[in-house]
């Protein structure tokens, strides 16, 4: 059946209410027309020019990303720069662009929940409950427990697989075994003290600030830098799963595809 963009956004916001988005965020429809119909959605983490090129090659008419294309008002659209080039390419091919960002971070079954599942945590709850949430499962970050304590070597192997990283930066002291884990997909450095206070053995997040790493070192608390891409990569299959379930139940008959070209922006290079 013909499905307008507003229907897609409405269903997304049922799962990740816009009221959960941070005040500085810019989620929702960022480019396009609410009444335009969609037949093919491509989902990625970042609104990169390679993603819009992939959409054009596939014939997708809608792009949904976790990170917004536009964070702040644009004073100019310079098509020689990446954001301007993305806007030009998307508009010229009539591609709608939607972001589902911090509302998906704080939502029940959000980005941090997906990472918690990937490493096998149980009894998962928000690290910081959302002040606007009626649902106790909504909020930033997550804290949970393993059914049985996991030796540190096995834990690191499990985490590396979930993050798709061959190596990890660790600040502070890694416990010999881990029972309770706190995590926050994306830039969660500011929640490290909360994780420590709530009894986590380790805290996994991204873009850990230098002074926070020093604090962890002094406290003997373990922080693990999982990188922004690594800790949020599960947002892509999460969004695809949400939309595919709606696609089936509502008989949209829309093609929903995860990006096949997106990759980690950092490459680990060994120095002899």
UniProtKB/TrEMBL annotation:
Keywords linked to the UniProt accession: Metal-binding
Keyword Metal-binding part of the UniProt annotation: yes
GO molecular function: metal ion binding
InterPro entries from the UniProt entry: DUF34/NIF3, DUF34/NIF3_sf
Binding site for a divalent metal cation: 66-67, 105, 228, 232
Keyword Magnesium among record annotations: no
GO cellular component terms, A-Z: cytoplasm
PANTHER family in the cross-refs: GTP CYCLOHYDROLASE 1 TYPE 2 HOMOLOG (PTHR13799:SF14), NGG1 INTERACTING FACTOR 3 (PTHR13799)
Assembly notes: Homohexamer.
Family matches, as NCBIfam families: YbgI_SA1388
Family: Belongs to the GTP cyclohydrolase I type 2/NIF3 family.
Protein name listed in UniProt: GTP cyclohydrolase 1 type 2 homolog
Native organism taxonomy: Bacteria, Pseudomonadati, Thermodesulfobacteriota, Desulfobulbia, Desulfobulbales
């Amino acid at each position: 059946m013909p499905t307008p963009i507003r229907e897609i956004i409405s269903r997304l916001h049922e799962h990740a209410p816009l009221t959960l988005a941070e005040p500085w965020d810019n989620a929702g429809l960022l480019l396009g027309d609410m009444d335009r119909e969609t037949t093919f959605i491509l989902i990625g983490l970042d609104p990169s020019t390679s993603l819009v090129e992939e959409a054009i090659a596939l014939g997708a008419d809608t792009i949904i990303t976790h990170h917004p294309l536009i964070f702040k008002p644009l004073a100019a659209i310079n098509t020689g720069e990446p954001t301007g080039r993305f806007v030009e390419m998307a508009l010229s091919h009539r591609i709608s662009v939607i972001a589902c960002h911090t509302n998906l971070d704080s939502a029940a079954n959000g980005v941090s929940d997906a990472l918690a599942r990937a490493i096998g945590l149980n009894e998962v709850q928000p690290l910081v409950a959302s002040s606007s949430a009626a649902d106790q499962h909504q909020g930033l970050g997550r804290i949970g427990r393993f059914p049985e304590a996991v030796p540190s070597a096995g834990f690191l192997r499990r985490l590396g697989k979930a993050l798709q990283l061959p190596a990890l930066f660790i600040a502070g002291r890694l416990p010999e075994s881990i029972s309770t884990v706190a995590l926050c997909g994306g830039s969660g450095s500011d929640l490290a003290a909360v994780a420590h206070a709530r009894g986590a053995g380790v805290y996994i997040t991204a873009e850990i600030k230098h002074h926070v790493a020093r604090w962890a070192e002094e406290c003997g608390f373990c922080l693990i830098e999982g990188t922004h891409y690594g800790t949020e990569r599960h947002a892509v299959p999460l969004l695809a799963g949400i939309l595919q379930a709606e696609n089936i139940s509502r008989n949209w008959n829309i093609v929903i595809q995860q990006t096949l070209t997106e990759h980690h922006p950092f490459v680990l290079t060994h120095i002899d």
